[in-house]
Amino acid sequence: MAYIIKFIYGFVLPPGIFVVFLLIVGILLYRREKTIAKLLLLIAFLFYVCIIPLTGKVLIQSLEQRYNPPSQIKGDVIVMLGGGATLDTPNFDDKGQIYSEAANRLLTVLRLYQKTNLPILLSGGQVYSDSGNEAEISLGVPESKIILENKSINTEENAKFTKILLNKYGLHHPVLVTSAYHMERAVLNFKKYNIDVQPYPTDYQTSRKLSLYVNQFTPSINELTFSAAKEYIGIFSLKFH
């Protein structure tokens, strides 16, 4: 019963209500303005496809499966790309907290550090005036093992400013840690600056096995579709620009 209620809510609340509205208008206009009605129905269908969870999961999954975590680490530094943080929320050291995406990356980095004892290069600056800087949030790792890159505000700058620090410290074989769906675009940006990385994807948003059930088709605010679209646009730009 709970799943049925969620399905109904999906069409009563935004953005699902907009699909319903377009469908109703399209049906009402069909006899008088068939061309306009067909266009509205087509827009309703395309909009519906974009806002169901299944679409986002399929798109994200196709990105996440392009790299697998290596069984053996071959590098001299662990590079973590930032994923955002709050500026002044309560924490042990009153420096804010990292977002869930960045937290997943951080957990992987800490496990890799425990396994390899390699230095950690944290790449990520303060994007907006009310956002924090995860590169400056305490990790519980000795300061001598941490290199901070706190100027970059996008993936290209991650690569650009990381290159400078790698040269400064004589490091040549970075193990790159970022979200699995973001990895291909990150690798392409690092290649742009002649940095050969060993990809170590983490922060998976979908399971490898995709299941079909009614709520996969329930309209919702679908962040996965937006994230996937952003990655595909970025990858296309880097490959064909």
Give the number of DSSP strands: 5
Number of helices: 8
* Proportion in β-strands: 5-15%
The strand order across the widest sheet is 3-2-1-4-5
Q: CATH homologous superfamily name of the largest domain?
A: HUPs
- Which overall shape is indicated by the principal axes computed on the Cα atoms? elongated
| Structural class category | alpha/beta
In which range does the helix fraction lie?
40-55%
Taken in chain order, the helices and strands follow as HHHHEHEEHEHEH
Could you say how many structural domains there are in total?
Answer: 2
Uncertain runs:
none
Q: Would you write up a description of this structure?
A:
The protein has 241 residues and is an alpha/beta fold. The chain is 48% helix and 10% strand. It has 8 helices and 5 strands, in the order ααααβαββαβαβα. The protein is elongated. Helix 2 packs antiparallel against helix 3 and helix 7 packs parallel to helix 8. The protein has 2 domains: 83 residues, no CATH class; 126 residues, HUPs (Rossmann fold), CATH 3.40.50. It has a 5-stranded parallel sheet, with helices on both faces. Keywords: Membrane, Transmembrane, Transmembrane helix. This is YdcF family protein. InterPro entries: Cell_Envelope_Assoc, DUF218, Rossmann-like_a/b/a_fold. It holds the Pfam family DUF218.
Secondary structure layout plus pairing:
Layout: H1 2-12, H2 16-29, H3 34-51, H4 53-64, E1 77-81, H5 100-116, E2 120-123, E3 146-149, H6 155-169, E4 174-179, H7 183-192, E5 198-202, H8 223-240
Parallel strand pairs: 1-2, 1-4, 2-3, 4-5
Helix pairs in contact: 1-2, 2-3, 4-8, 6-7, 7-8
